[in-house]
Fold this sequence. Notes:
The protein has helices at 15-26, 61-74, 123-127, 137-140, 156-166, 185-192, 290-310, and strands at residues 4-11, 32-34, 48-49, 59-60, 78-80, 84-88, 94-98, 103-111, 115-117, 133-134, 148-152, 171-175, 197-200, 203-209, 216-223, 226-233, 236-239, 243-245, 276-278. By secondary structure, it is an alpha/beta fold. Strands 1, 2, 5, 6, 7, 8 and 19 form a 7-stranded mixed β-sheet that branches.
Amino acid sequence: MENEKTKCLIIGSGPAGYTAAIYAGRANLSPILYEGLQPGGQLTITTEVENFPGYPQGVSGTDLMEDLRMQAMRFGCDIRTGIATAADLSKRPYRITIDDGRIIETETLIIATGATAKYLGLEDEQKYAGMGVSACATCDGFFYRNKTVAVVGGGDTACEEALYLAGLAKEVYLIVRKDYLRASKIMQQRVMGNEKITILFKHNAVGLYGENGVEGVHLLENAGGEERRYDLPIDGFFLAIGHKPNSEIFAPYVETDATGYIVTEPNTPKTCVPGVFAAGDVADPIYRQAITAAASGCKAAIEAERFLSEAGLLH
Ligand code: NDP
C-alpha cells in the first residue's frame, strides 16, 4: 500500500480532536482524523454533561460528541475509523501507522488521544474482566439492576458513577482510600444525600471473590492505624480512580511527565517536535474538562495552520 500524504492529521475523537478538526477544516487544511480506540472519547461513556457552555438543560455525552462530529464533517474533515499503532516523528513528514497497515505521512500532527481508565492492578480485575468488573458504569450499569455494586474512587468520576448506579442498583458502596472525597462539593452533596449510597472511607479493595463472576470484594479498612480485613458481598465492581494518558507511541519523541502526560510549551499545544501538537486530556493533568479539551484542540489547529503557512506548505 502506498503511503498517504496529508497536511494535517488528527488522532483522537474527543472534544479536542473534533474541535481541532472543525478549525483545521475551516482553515482549508483538509484534515484527516482517526477516531481511535473509543470513537467520541470518554464523554460517550458518561451520562449527562451539565457543564459544557451552551446547554442550559445539560446534554448527553453521546449527543454532544455527535454534534461535534457532524460539525467537523461539515467543514470537510475526513473522519475515519482506525487506531494509530506506531509513530515516527524523527523527521518531517511524520509517519503514523494505522491498524489497517496504512501509513500516513503528515506535515503536522495533532495528538488528541485522551486518557484511559486506570485499574488498581489486582490480579482479580483481570480474572473477572467482563464478569463483574467494569470501568464504565454507563456502559455496564444496566446489568446490575436491583443488585449490589461497589465503586472505587473519591473523585468526580467515582461520584458520578455511584449516582448513576444508584438509579439502577439496590445498593451502592463507594470505596474511598482516604477519609474525604476529592470530588467537587456539589457531587459530594449529591452522593451523601443519596440513601442508596454508603461511603466506606479509609477502605481499600484488595481482592475479589466469586465462583462464576464477582460475588464480593475483600476489603482492608485502615481506621486509626488499625487494619481490619473483611468481605463485602457485591455483584459488580466499578473502577473510577482516574485515567492514564494515551501517549505511549509518541513518548519516544515528545516530552512526557512521570505519568505520561505530554508536556507542551506553557499556554500552547506545541510539543518539543515542530509541527506536532498535543490537545485535550493526553496533555492535561490538571483540568481534564470537555471545554478545556475543546479549547486546546482549537489552539492546536490554529498552530498547525501557522506552522504550515510559515513552512510555505499551505497551498
Ligand atoms: P481524580 O484523579 O479526580 O480522582 C481519582 C480518585 O481515585 C481519587 O479519589 C483517588 O484517591 C482515587 N484513587 C486513585 N488511585 C487509587 C488507588 N490505587 N486506589 C484507590 N483509590 C485511588 O479522577 P476523576 O476521574 O474522578 O476526575 C478526573 C478529572 O475530571 C477531575 O478534574 C474531575 O473534576 C473531572 N470530572 C468532572 C466531572 C464533572 O464535572 N461532571 C465528571 C467527572 C470528572 P485520592 O483522593 O486518595 O488520591
